[in-house]
TrEMBL record:
Protein name as it appears in the record: Asp23/Gls24 family envelope stress response protein
Annotated family: Belongs to the asp23 family.
Amino acid sequence: MTREQAPARHLVETVIAPPVIAAVAAHAAARVPGVVRLEPGLRGLAGSLTRIARQRIKGLEPAPTEGVRAFVEHDPPDVRVEIDLSLSGLDQAAATAQAVQRAVGKAVTEATGLTPSAVSVSILDIEIRGGLL
């Protein structure tokens, strides 16, 4: 949430909803090399289906947020992001998770002006291809 002083001394308040932050984070995380996909899990899937249904009723095309949860506190302003994902077995998991944290933090800050206090990454699966095991 940001507050600005308008020209006529009116206070203008901008509220950025958690689904917006989650969509920005999902897009940024999915673009990191080594990320195979975002994993919604049961909790994320239920919340995502509810949000998608509401937006479709309103005629909106929902941005994908599966596997990402954003939490916003307004006083004081604080943003936290949780991401569940699957990684490629070809990359080091810890390095990829750190790259996701950096990419998501940067993307959320650039898109909203809010810097996340935490970006938590949970690796739910690592895909091994080509018979490496």
